[in-house]
Amino acid sequence: MCLVTGDKEDLIPERTGAPKSESINSDGSSRNETSPLHKAKKVLKSGKDVGGFMLVHDHKNQKSKVFDFRETAPGASTQKMFTDRDEALVGGLAVAVPGEVKGMEEAHKQYGKLAWNTVVKPAADLARNGFMITKAWLGQKVKRPDLAKTLDIIAAEGAKAFYDGTLTDSIINAIQSANPKGILTRKDLKDYKVVVRDVVKTTYNGHTVISAPVPASGPVVLSILNILEGYKFSPKDVNKTSTYHKILEAFKFAYAQQQQLGDPADPAYKASVTEKMLKQISSIQENVHYQTCLQQYCTIQSIHVHSESL
């Protein structure tokens, strides 16, 4: 999620279905305008995501920061806690420490102008009053009264209700009574902290591009852009096989480098990996041998390639 904050109401365009009277036309920044929409989206998505990253750019002072509210592993986690893949996807063991509620509140504290309950209320109302789902589900209207009650409590009491308050015991009880039983504890929730990080940045064709640092994949995206910029594509390169090949190779090499990244909370983490990803570009470009790679692929696929078509 990338947001721009400031006083200009035209920074973020109107969204279809946005609660207009409480977002775009409210006397708040675009940070406030987006919070109700994001929470409403969570209602529609059934709230499966439990963490994330928010990049905020202040256009007044041209400064940016990233709120890292990625979910974290419970304190009792071990490398061998899952006996099969399904346990990592379904059941109590699959539940990490959620960061989204506290992350949204932290961003609101630093940039918000509207009251917190005003920000959360549209999502609670959407869950309570219901919304239409697609024709694949017969166009039914879905209501989520339990989620509405939860959001009402968060609106009234803040993130504390989730992490160390009214809602905490019911969250822990549900996780620890699941099958398989979860290991998330009340202490895990209480100890969760949002991390504010510096952005990573590069330039692309004269434009500054900023993104979220690790543990997000911002360095990967910026590395791809750096590699592609070196090819100096022009309109004549559009729809050429060699152009698509170079784009695919840029993705391949950048994601190969991703395997060297890690978690900044890990003592073994090396920040220098990100620096190398954003600088060692020419050597990567030299490794993209279009003719050789294409011939190898075509040999495997038993396809004959005419050199004049390259």
Automatic annotation (TrEMBL):
InterPro entries: GGT_lsub (IPR043138), GGT_peptidase (IPR000101), Ntn_hydrolases_N (IPR029055). Residues 1-38 are annotated as: Disordered. Transmembrane segments: none annotated. This is Gamma-glutamyltransferase. Residues 1-13 have a biased composition (Basic and acidic residues). Gene3D superfamilies: 1.10.246.130. Residues 22-35 have a biased composition (Polar residues). SUPFAM superfamilies: N-terminal nucleophile aminohydrolases (Ntn hydrolases) (SSF56235). Pfam families: G_glu_transpept.
